[in-house]
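Practice problem: predict the structure.
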Amino acid sequence: MTKPAINNRFPASLPKPWLNQWNELLEKETATARVEWAMENLPAQFVLSSSFGIQSAVMLHMLTQVDKNIPVLLTDTGHLFPETYQFIEQLTERLDLNLHVFSAKESAAWQRAKYGEEWAKGEDELKAYNRRNKVEPLERGLNELEASTWFSGVRRQQSSHREGLSVVSILRGRFKVHPIIDWSNRDVHQYLTKHNLPYHPLWDHGYVSVGDVHSTRPLELGMDESETRFSGMQRECGLHTDGDGI
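Answer:
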């Protein structure tokens, strides 16, 4: 497929037919082929964001097989589970990750003293918490790493918002690529098993999604998966959506 001339400033003005044609092609490709296509056709610098969540080893392994030194961007809220920090250390060492960690400008303790427990107050306060601790550090990280194309491991199966995502999109002025967007939980399990990769350690304790200590619960009988995060108030924290994104 012919592509328009690319430079690091053009995504916002990309003619929509090009994006549609690309996605029509990429829907038929494997996840690895999508990564390779993006790295051949979209502008560098390339960055992979990771939460080091339950299934994060899939994308970390897949992307580093194609580009060993791709920057991996983690936003650390200061409220992650101890097991998450241990998982970060484990995968960074095993996969020799080029890890870059970004956090809010105010520490977790400072914010708690200044704003209180925002995550427990209501949706507006939770949005403010997520913007300050997740969206702003991510955007600052992408800017400092000079990212023009950003890879993410989100999947359609995970939320109603993600059901409508394509393989390639444009978000906040950058290309965003979702190589495993159409994968099922079975696909994820098969990849992890094939490459002898671990789930997050809290998987064995009933967690299907892992974020902050204060806003994540294990899945229990009778619960919907969306209820395991933020008491069901929100499924998206704003990282993968426009505007407030929530």
